[in-house]
Amino acid sequence: MKTQRDCSATTSNACILLSETTSEYFILLADIYGPEKSKREWIRSASSKTDRRMGNRESGRTGKQGFPSVTAFVLSAFEAAKMEPLYPKAAWTWLLQQQNAEKNWGKTWEYYGVEAYALWPVMRALRQKNSKEFALPIQQAADYIFSAQQGKLYWDSGDPAQPKRISAELETALMLAAYPDLIGNVGHIATENGIQFLIQSQGEDGHWDGGFFPIPNARYVKEEYVFATARAMVALEVKSEK
Fold first, then answer.
1. Could you tell me the pLDDT band of residue 181, with boundaries at 50, 70 and 90?
2. Is pLDDT at 55 greater than 80 in this prediction?
3. What is the rounded distance in angstroms from the CA atom of residue 20 to the CA atom of residue 116?
4. DSSP string across 117-131
5. What is the rounded CA–CA span in Å between residue 190 and residue 224?
6. Does residue 49 register a pLDDT over 50?
7. Residue 162 above 70 pLDDT?
8. Whole-number Å distance between alpha carbons of 97 and 91
9. What Cα–Cα distance (Å) separates residue 112 from each residue in 94, 115, 117, 168, 211?
10. How far is 72 from 66, CA to CA, in rounded Å?
11. How much is the pTM?
12. From residue 238, how far is each of 73, 134, 222 by CA, in Å?
């Protein structure tokens, strides 16, 4: 399947969100109906404007802003559909090169102001590929995840001086999503603490507080309780399966 490979002219956040949510759609199709259903739907929509705009993610290039999360989401979508991107080696090489000195994949306001958002799709993509080449960066990132808890029962690295920041509940759920293989392992107390924190912090009406999306625009206010509740439910579901 060929798609337009250059999205660099599109620098809006809409392009980034489109690629990530479209990828999650194909991953969900594969989870529910199997890879063939995901593959057929992907090919069917390949000629649409939507798919052409996400084409450059296949080669490991994510436009001017270079968000590792976008490439990771798309790589996972390819894996779910049992398909290969146009330039797989370039994509994986680029993604590994984005791991920083702290052994995560950075944070920006588009990443909810925390490292956890990028860690979630990148770690999933690396685990799915199951390559020996990825063992060290995965372990280094896992070490970062657990050290970032800093002795707390949860993860909360957002800037307290910011009026709009995500909640500890959402950040904790994202960190647990970054390495679900360790959930339930009694040797990783930080993970167990995170699960207990989510259980205890659920609201009486069933939802989890998500805080606010930290866009630097005073007129834009977006609460993240839906995202937080969804990610918390996934984390607890994974825990119950262990």
1. low
2. no
3. 15
4. HHHHHHHHHHHHHT-
5. 24
6. no
7. yes
8. 10
9. 22, 8, 7, 12, 10
10. 12
11. 0.81
12. 20, 23, 27
Burial class of 191 by CB neighbour count within 10 A (0 to 12, 13 to 18, 19+): buried
Predicted local confidence at residue 158, as pLDDT? 77
* Mean pLDDT for the chain overall: 81
* pLDDT of 9 above 50: no
- Three-state DSSP state, 76: helix
Amino acid present at 240: S
Q: Which two tokens stand for residue 15?
A: 């392009």
- Structural tokens at position 226: 């839906």
Task: Extract the tokens encoding 9.
Answer: 């002219």
Show the tokens assigned to 110.
């588009």
Q: Determine what percent of the chain is predicted with pLDDT higher than 90.
A: 46
List beta partners, residue 223.
212
- Distance between CA 227 and CA 29 in Å, rounded? 19
Three-state SS at 211: strand
Q: What's the mean pLDDT in 62-81? A: 81
Give, in degrees to the nearest 5, the angle at Cα 155 between 168 and 226. Answer: 35
Tokens, residue 129: 């590929």
**Residue in the structure block whose two tokens are 């109906």:** 33
> Alpha helices, DSSP H only, in the chain?
13-33, 35-44, 49-53, 68-80, 88-97, 116-129, 135-147, 168-178, 189-201, 225-241
| Rounded-to-integer distance, Cα 196 and Cα 199, Å | 5
How sure is the predictor about 86, in pLDDT bands with cuts at 50, 70 and 90?
Answer: confident
